[in-house]
From TrEMBL:
Coiled coil: none annotated. Keywords: Isoprene biosynthesis, Magnesium, Metal-binding, Transferase. GO terms for molecular function: metal ion binding; prenyltransferase activity. This is Geranyl transferase. One of its GO terms (biological process) is terpenoid biosynthetic process.
Amino acid sequence: METVPMDLHEAMRYATLGGGKRLRACLVYATGEALGAAPEALDPPAAAVELIHAYSLVHDDLPCMDDDDMRRGRPSCHKAFGEATALLAGDALQTQAFAVLAAAETLSPQARIRMVEELARASGSLGMAGGQALDLKAGPVATIEVLEERHSRKTGALMHAAVRLGALAATPEIPPALDDYGRALGLAFQIADDLLDVEGVALVVGKTIGADAAAGKATFASVLGIKEARRRARDLYENSLASLRFLGDNGRLLATIAHYAVERDH
């Protein structure tokens, strides 16, 4: 958007277009295609979920949150544009996500409303924002139940929502097995993240390594140990595959995404 305020729009582009896995958008497309959704109906929810994800990363990196200087292999948004502009960029990206859904002519009015509800719930106090609040209070000791509660919100809620958004583009009745898949995938992804924070290479991962340990936060890796954390991630991966059986061959892309989530190096 080449209009004023130019620096804000530049920061928004920086946060959304500069690298990243686009995994949540892939989940929208893979789920929708598996259920027979029209391809053009999947573009708005895929864009919306990525806009929410980008906003969350901008805000998570701020000094008042996780205080990370590196994201996607380059300076975090607040390091490149300043804290105030980064804060506003995150705000604007969040509202843009809902604008995209509200204006989606390829979706029925009912589907738009359901998608707005899903994305709002996943982003709010009972989802991602609530998970971040729990994470800010996290200490070096935690039970597995506490970790799963925290990360099912902070990380898992938006991934789960991406699956549900893809399903809603095809049907108003979301198969319960897809909820099982989305929940398992979100936790498996977070365990893989925790392992990368211990074993990863910063230039490959694209963000600061060892940040959780430096902040004194309990993680799946620190609570379970490396070997047991890997086993837990593998169990969740197997659970996610079992949830896809009802789709037959149509679930192959979702299965591939689940494999990537636990085996990735970044």
